[in-house]
Fold these 2 entries.
Entry 1:
Amino acid sequence: MALRLPRSGVPQVLAFLAILAINWTVSPQFFDIRLQDGRLFGSLIDVFNRGAPVALLSLGMVLVIATRGIDLSVGAVMAISGAIAASLADTHPLPVVLAAALGAGLLCGLWNGLLVAVLGIQPIVATLILMVAGRGIAQLITEGRIVTFTAPELVWFGGGSVLGIPAPVAITLGMLLVTLILVRGTALGLMIEATGGNARASALAGVGTTAMTMAVYVWCSLCAALAGIIAAADILGADANNAGLWLELDAILAVVIGGTSLFGGRFSLVYAVLGALIIQAMNTGILLSGFRPEFNLVVKAVVVLVVLLMQSPRLSGLGLLLSRVSK
Amino acid sequence: MNRLFPVLVTTAVFLIGFVVCSLQFPNFASTRVVADLLTDNAFLGIVATGMTFVIISGGIDLSVGAVIGFTTVFLALAIQQLGISPWLAFAAILIVCAAFGAAMGAVIQYFDLPPFIVTLAGMFLARGASFLMSTESIPINAPLYSELPDYAIKLPGDGQLTVIAMIMLAVFAFGIVLLHFTRFGANVYALGGSRVTAALMGVRIGRVTILIYTLSSVLAGLSGIVFSFYTSAGYSLSAVGVELDTIAAVVIGGTLLAGGYGFVFGTFVGVLIQGLIQSYINFDGTLSSWWTKIATGILLFAFIVLQQAMVGFARRRSRRAVGVTLS
């Protein structure tokens, strides 16, 4: 039995179910779902709903990490797009608001992609620039205030529903499908994995590594911009200081839990989204069980360490050795 | 001369910035402003010294801000609630920090994991632990804390060289000696140049890696002590985001993020430049605080591009020297 944990996805599903079961023992009404005003409510729905922004971020992040990169700026991009959406919402029609907010995300992604793919700067540093400056830019847009809005079209993104499914969940599902079709329905996913596996060899083999790298950063920032709109619609306002704060870390964590290797070269979209849901289910569970929310960070730290140690090249070498012995 | 070029550029930027500020604000060029610059950035300078070692060795330490927060809460609880003597508390927290850093270094070394994700887990752990200890801001009113301003040295003019500024200068002096004049310092450079080569040359990379992260965490702990002097309080949310300011200061100071190159003196100037931007905004009065972030981002970008250009130039020259040309 080789240690093939990261590929199969069974541990992720088991972990998710286990956490849901723990939540259920802590709070017996956890699985109660009711339909009210044409929208589903309940703790389980809440896990999906609250997990949607991080799930969206992890969709983009998983592609970036597959190219051996990292994007630290997604939280700041969320703040920028939320600020733009909130300040335009009451004076402009919805298409203009969406175009402006997503357009800002596109520009951020192009900037990150340019630094990484064309100038050849290490991803962690290149995206650090936007992480530091982005929040300043968001505050510039909101002029340091918390901008609120009432436009019902934009509010729908946070509180609306499609066939009873809350809008954030529906949007995330839609984005997951689009991303899946784009990267797994075509050769794009393979080329992204090739770029992460060995950029130089892939370039020599004819893969457009520069374009691939640009594309994943643009996609990541677009997902972040969409998450920013949802976050702003959720609180009916944009808080440039706190919107998306530390969510980049949650997104990276979700990708790592999803079994995508930080060393690039292979990725799984579905399990990354599942990783985001696992994180949210843990958060909800800690809240339901009456523990102080401060436990969250410690639990997350332990989870990161455990998952990392399972992924560690040294340990998987050990697993291989054990499997040989058992044969 | 060529080796020192980035540090010279940084120093020139600082001097030009200082002259510009002095021309604009008549009271700027005084010992008071300079002394305040040192005092206000003392905690940043101390932690940036440790980060310089980490980055030159090719790593990164994202946990330093959380360690500072942990230290301030630990000190406040130990001194105020348990009534332990401040000196004993200082010794205890530095030992805790040393163990914490050594553990991170050991995980990075023996499980072959990327430093940024390990120190990210460390950041969650330290921040979570400080939340668990207390979520409130606890004032510290031990006699040592109130006596501290008495030890400041009066400078000609209106300035005062405070104790915490002196601690920072001492740490920088210690860092310069350790990095540039000891075997440990040479090993840090060797590790950043190439781990494999360093190991083949007989550097005990495991020991050096653990020592580097221990040093970084101990200096973060010292920085937390200084931070508690500065604010006379312990708060679990203090120094959020300081890891980014620290990395920015190190990069602006001319240290190569890929490792293997950099000077402690450059980091000192990098810290001063960040302080200078803050002072300029304070003096101006009409600019909002978010311009600090944007200006830091722009400077970060400029220095990273400068580094890329220099590395590219050096590579082309070495290729020409051995007679290799790429088509």
Note: The domain at 5-289 of chain B is CATH 1.10.3470 (ABC transporter involved in vitamin B12 uptake, BtuC).
Entry 2:
Amino acid sequence: MSDVTVGILGAGKVGTVLGRLLLAAGYRVLIAGSGPVSRIELTIEVLVPGAVTATADVVARESDIVVLALPLGKYRSIPRSQLEGKLVIDAMNYWWEIDGIRDDLDDPRVSTSEIIQDFLPTSRVVKAFNHVGYHDLDAGPRPAGSVDRTAIGIAGDDDAGLARVAQLVDAVGFDPVPIGSLRDSISLQPGSSLFGANFTADAVRTAIDDFPATPRGQLVAATRAHESGGVADD
Amino acid sequence: MSAVPFELGLNTFGDVPTENGRTFTDAETVRLIVEEAKLAEAVGLDVFSVGEHYREGFVDSAGAVILAGIASVTDRIRLGTAVTVLSTNDPVRLYNEFSTLDALSGGRAQLVLGRASQTQSFPLFGYDLADYEALFEEKLELFMRLQRESPITWSGTVRAPLVDVTLHPTMRAGGIPTWIGVGGSPNSVIRAAQYGLPLMLAIIGGEPERFAGHVDLYFRALEQFGKPLQPVGQHSLGLVADTDDEAAETWWTSWKPMIEMMGKERGFYPPTRERYQSELLTGALFVGSPETVAQKIARMVRELRISRFDLKYDVPGLSRSARAHSIELLGTVVAPRVREILAEESVNV
């Protein structure tokens, strides 16, 4: 396991917590913030001891798997060419208090991970780690088989990528629950009953099954049906 | 053997209370806050701080005016903010308000500058939330210079330039105590250290101990920037009542609808009763009997090396009498008990 390098783009609340979890699971961790490397050196030394700081370009290029943990509104700053062909974990959410009001990121027809996949056409994007609060992630890792193990919904269009992310989620201490495609990952986003929830695997599955019947699920279905001219797609 | 310095304060966001089922008017709530601050002083609390919000159910939009009212009916308690949303304030206006408050109160004014977890002031005053960081950075630099330099010449992007300007009433030498409020962003912690300003941790959910790393980071950063040691404080929510059960039940009744409303606005899952219980036990809510709350605060002093604890004692809909009783217990029972526990521990070390 220790020969796998995971890169994290974003050295804020989520990035630092994920960094600690990944190191504890035996991964080599590279991490980049938004500014010069020197700006995050002390933060990483104190909060994520063992992780290596580098520029976003280097982190993206040198890592086997790259986790996106920057504010979603800044996704266009992601070093796209360095991520060609790579497995990318999208842990981001539209959070208007940080990103500002962005209608493009709050469209019920399109999941934000689809937007990221469009921006990174040659990468394989998997949604994970977005719907459990970062303080629950921090406090929540448990060995496999623990009855109270927190589950993390994951979504993606690439089976091999999904399997690899499932393995990583399990390795850091959570139950991976595949919930569908990137298009389906809207059920992990803000506004869904899973967002902010700290659930076991069964409860995550139930929430996913129940999603279409929730007001948010109905809104998503209605706007998507309208988009395809009133004819059910898929 | 010397007493461990420790300050206990109150925070209000001007949450509108009820009495016998009737909701207070906004004006009644403003007047009640002044009464509660008087009570806080009478029971020996150290600081009373007012937030800054712009929404129904909260009347703290003009904190400096409320604090001026409090200043005129109190003698000793220090008067601060929790927090001032610097990004959407004009640093010059803020200086004027707080140098005036400091004059009026005989040197009792102080501030916590931050972002706050509510953001209505951005659209209200014509700012873009996405500019938050840049606004805060530039305005903090200007505000600290205003407090330390006079006359001042300054130009930037966030307000009109200043040329050889001296503001009046002039702030006391060196300025008033100015803290930086942070919610968990490591960058904000570093920024507080860079300016050599005291750090106020807003801990409103999850296990408070997870902030220990942030405190390490803050002290390490102060050292790296060559700044003198500064205090760390904690802001959390809670209620003190005669028993744990009474406190838990009373707080839940008012807190649940508020947190559900916030969840709806931001799209997060509202906590269950089970989750609430764990917040009381190991989380960030300071709700319980005087002994429970005192033990929990003392634990924070140990784990997070804080020397100031501010309890936000109000939540919309909480009864006036529950608020008053909480303030009384906090001042008369919790504060001396925390100091007793800390003194015992310092002897035993």
Note: Chain A touches chain B through 36 residues (CB under 8 Å).
